[in-house]
Amino acid sequence: MSSSMREDWEEVELGEVCFTTSGGTPSRNNLEFYQGEIPWVKSGELDKGIIYDTEEHISEEAVKKSSAKIFPEGTLLIALYGATIGKLAFLGVEATTNQAICGIYKSQAIASKYLYNFLLNRKQKLISQGTGGAQPNISQTILKKLSVPLAPLPIQRAIVSKIEALFSDLDNGIANFKTAQAQLKIYRQAVLKKAFEGKLSELGKVGLKDDRIIEEEILKSNNPKNPNSDNLPKGWKWVKLGEVALVNTGSTPKRGNSKYWDNGTIPWITSGALNELFVNKADEYITETALKETNCKIISEGSLLVAMYGEGKTRGKCSELKIDAATNQAIATISMLNEYSKSKVFVKWFFIMNYEEIRLLSSGGVQPNLNLSIIKNTIIPFPPIAEQTQIVQEIESRLSVCDKVEQSISESLIKAEALRQSILKKAFEGKLLSEAEIEQCKKEADYEPASGLLTRIERSRNEKIKAEKLAKEQEQKKATTKKKSKK
Fold first, then answer.
1. Less CB within 10 Å around the terminal CB: N or C of the chain?
2. CA torsion, ordered 201, 204, 206, 207, to nearest 10 deg
3. pLDDT at 2 over 80
């Protein structure tokens, strides 16, 4: 990499080389303003790369009677505030924007894609400079004063080309990792499905010859939960959960009663904690008094917990309790009967496998819930205890390999994002191009130091201003002469 790559560069403020302005929002009280054909971009739409159309459109009258303005095609847009702060996109058509977006016009001094990548690299810095509370704002002043490393135009183009090539390879790698993640998910479900059809324990007995269980095979499999099906392996039977376990629920001590909560030492679990396979801590604690005076009771370590309701995808989640604790009423607690104590992990994996199906059993309105009756009457294919133990071993052996692969993929995705930032950092430090690539840039017809480029653009701008001033003076002279001749 060249140490002299930046010898022809200049540090300039963004406002010195680019014209920027924000958009506006026409009055919502006038419905006709929003019945036009001019695209109107909101900051939430700056995730499309290039914007060709928008959710809303405004009229020419709306542009005339508001601070909205039409930006030309190719304008670079950046979100100034809100949840999308710092997001970037190009206009593929003429369009207007709201006031939360700044439009950066094309410039003779800086290639738009070069600026796009630079702003992508400086996104976090810009956000940190923002003012405001929970959601900082980037002002136009901050944006205009942003220091930009201005390279000669051929260097800018070469940097953009190399970034795009490296990012393309990176994106292909990331896509492959995400495909692998999806395949792992399919494989996990396939392992569990085979397990509860009795096929995994059969493989365990004879030795697994081919562990590649494909999606088509999963789709062909019969539903193992159907109690009317005869598709059970020899020695298996259908049981309801309530036949092999005690199923209960907890409660919530009155919030307004301080003696139930202040200085509490007893862990109190809510359904939000069930997003992990094991629950080993609580966010809240209750007192001994709460246990004595309310329906709360201690659930023993090792019990299974199933979320009966909760936000997002919590409902239906199953976890194993690793501490003695109380729970709220949104959780079904499952304690295996003594003779079935060794079935606990088998039952746990059953609930994990059938998470989506169990969620569908919910009843209710806007936020459907499971209930104790549904949980107690859940039907489980039940093999002999010895076979359950073997099945659990087979499941955990295979899924532990999945866990290691998934961890490796997650780490690789983090490294890929770090590499993306490293590429951008090197690009604008002048360390991305090789000596040969720089020499090739210098052979291009429009190569000139950035200082010369700025001088030439300034000269051209001054000449244009002078020509416009002269033309205006000539028009005024003609008007004066014409007026005198009429007299």
1. C
2. 150
3. no
Helix (H) or strand (E) holding 468: helix 450-486
- Which two tokens mark 220? 């062909």
Nearest-10 Cα torsion for 378, 382, 386, 388: -50
DSSP 145-192: T-EEEE--HHHHHHHHHHHHHHHHHHHHHHHHHHHHHHHHHHHHHHHH
The DSSP result for 204-264, as a single string, is: HHH--S-----HHHHHHS--TT-TT---PPTT-EEEEHHHHEEEEE-----TT-GGGTTT-
Q: What's the pTM?
A: 0.74
Nearest residue to 344 via CA among 300, 293, 307, 289 = 300
Q: Is the pLDDT of residue 54 over 70?
A: yes
CA angle 426, 77, 416 (to 5 degrees): 35
* φ, ψ for residue 319, nearest 5 deg: -135, 165
Q: Which of 52-61, 271-280, 459-468 has the lowest mean pLDDT?
A: 459-468
pLDDT for position 470: 79
Does the pLDDT of residue 286 top 60, yes or no? yes
d(CA 100, CA 45): 12
* pLDDT tens per residue across span 172-200: 999 999 999 999 999 999 999 999 988 87
Report residue 253: phi and psi, to 5°: -60, 150
Model pLDDT for residues 151-175, shown as the tens digit of each residue: 999 999 999 999 999 999 999 999 9
DSSP state of 73: T
Name the token pair of 196. 């509860």
Which of the 8 DSSP states describes residue 34?
A: G
Kindly tell me if the per-residue pLDDT of 405 is higher than 50. Answer: yes
Instruction: Please tell me the distance from the alpha carbon of residue 341 to that of residue 28, in angstroms, as a whole number.
Output: 64
Report the alpha-carbon angle 373-378-380, nearest 5.
Answer: 155
DSSP strands (E only) in 275-321: 278-279, 284-286, 304-307, 318-321
| Cβ atoms of residues 237 and 227 within 8 Å | no
Eight-state DSSP code of residue 5: G
Angle at 157 between CA 69 and CA 459, to 5 degrees: 65
Question: Residue 405 contacts by C-beta under 8 Å, 6 or more apart in sequence?
Answer: 180, 184
The reported pLDDT for the residue numbered 214 is 33
Q: C-alpha 197: how far from its chain's center?
A: 36
